[in-house]
Design a protein that fits this description.
Layout (H helix, E strand, L loop, with lengths): L2 H13 L1 H4 L3 H24 L4 H27 L5 H4 L18 H15 L5 H17 L5 H21 L4 H17 L10
């Protein structure tokens, strides 16, 4: 069996679930389209704890996302496939989207760079974050806008970039200096208990 056949067969196995079990449609749709707000809220909460460790984690996640997106752009120049709903018949499509290159999945990259970074930093509920990233990746298949290989590649890029950022960003002198400048400025504007130095 060729890779393309494996890809489409795996897509059908997940995407067709919504046809059989209609209660999955709102689950897939919510995860695919609205879970990003939960991630954004978590990032803001971590940042405004005013702890250096949490802020360095958020910075690392942001840089890892940029790195992963660079990898994604390079991969997109090497390989192209449109969304499943544009290439396959009878796709269970729950999200309206313009037809373009769906390889790799940007949503999956976003969630795996941030959630895997949370896992690397050993945050509470770290396994929940990884589970959320996996669920979002699956939901992108469930709503009909990505193939399994799209999300697997996005997850791989996200994790590789997160590991790289985790190893090099917190110890970088430039990162530490910029964060110290920000902390000082924030303390001047929003005085209060300074947790920035607490680890």
């Amino acid at each position: 069996m060729e890779l393309w056949d494996i890809n489409t067969s795996a897509f059908r196995s997940i995407n067709d679930l919504g046809k059989t079990y209609s209660f999955l449609d709102p689950v897939f749709y919510t995860l695919a389209e609205h879970s990003v707000f939960l991630l954004a809220f978590a990032v803001l909460c971590y940042w405004f704890t005013r702890r250096n460790e949490n802020r360095m984690m958020v910075i690392s996640a942001g840089i890892s996302f940029i790195l992963a997106e660079i990898l994604a752009k390079i991969a997109g120049m090497i390989h192209y496939n449109s969304q499943p709903f544009a290439e396959l018949p009878d796709v269970h499509q729950l999200v309206q989207k313009a037809v373009n290159n769906s390889f790799p999945s940007d949503h999956t990259i976003l969630f795996f760079t941030f959630c895997f970074t949370f896992w690397l930093f050993g945050k509470r509920f770290r396994l929940v974050w990884l589970l959320l990233a996996c669920c979002v990746a699956i939901s992108r298949i469930g709503v009909g806008v990505h193939y399994p290989f799209d999300v697997l590649t996005g997850a791989l890029f996200g994790m590789i970039s997160a590991i790289f950022a985790y190893k090099f960003v917190p110890g970088a002198l430039l990162t530490q200096k910029l964060l110290a400048i920000y902390n000082k400025a924030e303390q001047a504007v929003l005085p209060g208990k300074d947790k920035a130095k607490e680890m």
